Structures are given as C-alpha cells and as structure tokens.
Amino acid sequence: QVQLVESGGGLVQSGGSLRLSCAASEGIGSPYMMAWVRQAPGKDREFVANIRWDTGVPQYADSVQGRCTISRDNAKKTLYLQMNSLKPEDTAVYYCAASITPGYYDSWGQGTQVTVSS
C-alpha cells in the first residue's frame, strides 16, 4: 500500500510563495507519473501539474504556468511544488497523486490546505 503525505501548506499573503512537499512510502518504487491536484471549496478537483518520474518532464495547468514549478527527488521519494506569486484564487486543498500504472492515479494523499489572503 503506497502512502503519500503532503506538507508545506499554510496561510500566505497574495504575491507570496509556498513550497509543498509530498513524501511517498518506499513501496511506491518508481511511479510512472506524479501530480498535484487542488480542490477549492464548492469546486471540482483541478489539475495543477504533473511530472514523469523517469524523465522529469513536467506539465502545468494554464492557471499556474510560469508561477509554479513541480519537481521530484527520486532518492527521497518526494514530490515538490514550488508556488510563487500566489493569488487568492490559488486557495484550495492541494493533493498529491501517484500513477503507478499509466492511465490513472492509483494513490492519493490526504491533502494540505493553502490559503492566500488578498
């Protein structure tokens, strides 16, 4: 059973920065892909970014392109999301997800709250 534990969320002012981390249990091995997904109150989950674990190639949602950087540390089995120039509309619970099998996300973390004040 793969476990994902997010951390790094918090309250920040508009324009500020946060770095989210997602630590994976050893059983994750080498996933195909990992991602950050967020959910704001009253809204559906929204893709933020993902990264191919083997190549490190990232993809970003248009809403965060240029402001966020996804990265991973294979040795530490940890996924990161550096978020800069944060906006109030970035307020959401941020979830980490792992795709062990290509095509869908098998494992999810419990989420970490990010709140951006105006």
Q: If you had to describe this structure to a student in words, what would you say it looks like?
A:
It is a single chain. The N and C termini lie far apart (40 Å). Strands 2, 4, 5, 6, 9, 10 and 11 form a seven-stranded mixed sheet that branches. Strands 1-3-8-7 form a four-stranded antiparallel sheet, with no helix packed on it. It contains no helices and eleven strands. The chain has 118 residues and is mainly beta. Helices cover 0% and strands 51% of the residues.
Notable features of this structure?
mainly beta, seven-stranded mixed beta sheet, four-stranded antiparallel beta sheet, single chain, 118 residues
Which spans have pLDDT < 50 for at least 5 consecutive residues? Answer: none
Overall pLDDT = 95
Number of separate helices: 0
Q: What is the radius of gyration computed over CA atoms, rounded to a whole number of angstroms?
A: 13 Å
Oligomer: single chain
In one word, what is the shape? globular
Strand content: over 45%
Instruction: Count the beta strands.
Output: 11
From the helix content, strand content and strand pairing, which structural class follows?
A: mainly beta
**Head-to-tail CA distance between termini:** 40 Å
Order of helices and strands: EEEEEEEEEEE
Q: How would you characterize the largest beta sheet?
A: 7 strands, mixed
Helix content: under 10%
Helix-strand blueprint:
Blueprint: E1 4-7, E2 10-13, E3 18-24, E4 33-39, E5 46-52, E6 58-60, E7 68-73, E8 78-83, E9 92-99, E10 107-108, E11 112-117
Parallel strand pairs: 2-11
Antiparallel strand pairs: 1-3, 3-8, 4-5, 4-9, 5-6, 7-8, 9-10, 9-11
